[in-house]
Amino acid sequence: MIFCFSGTGNSLYVARLIAEYTNDRVISIPEEMAEDKNCNEYEPEEEESIGFVYPVYAWAPPRMVIDFISRLSLPNADNHYVYSVATCGENIGNTMKALGNALKKRDIKLQSGFSVVMPNNYNILGDVDSKEDADRKLDRAEEQIREICKLIESKQTGIFKLRKGPIPTVLTGLVNPLFNKYALDASRFYATDTCTGCGLCQDICPTKNIHVDGKPVWNANCTQCLACIHHCPVRAIEYGKYTVNKGRYINPRV
User: Fold this and answer.
1) Which helix (H) or strand (E) holds 231?
2) pTM for the full model?
3) Between β-strands 210-213 and 189-191, what pairing exists: parallel, antiparallel or unpaired?
């Protein structure tokens, strides 16, 4: 089984490629969290691997992924191969260590981990990649994922192929807490007059943080996945002045 969190499709794309290769099932973390259960319990099939695929948000796993793991119950997890794949725009800091620590609290050992560079979607800082650059990144990612699939299939342990970047301890230990404290503010989101009130943003929000009453309204439970911005069919959603006149991105291969 592969537990997946994805906003604009990069991590979903990776999870699906792995699932096709390994004949595993993909389980949506947001859909499971929407059920608001005190315990998320799963019974892996015999010889089934357990994977966690998610994007990196400010050099750590998204808060929802950590919250999901805090409620996770996997009986006999020691008998199963556990791995993680983190997608990123450039590097991941100590993301994998943070995930491993969260799993350890649930008596689950992370045995291998990988990072995969994907097209940039965080257009609050910078802009999205050009189509040409995005296609090149996706082609390289496909090659890398094929190699990762071989390691997963053979259940190789102790393999951590990660692009941590500089000062990973500072990035994950200091910058990420600041991001979670200050950057998850949804008050800067708004819809322009081009909004048609279609409700797509409400439907795709992984935290169910949006409701549409003529126009979308954002509540306080934002994870900064920016799915609402990128999926809007009329490009009506902005985040302050940060995203105005910038590109939009949805993984074209999902």
Assistant:
1) helix 227-231
2) 0.96
3) unpaired
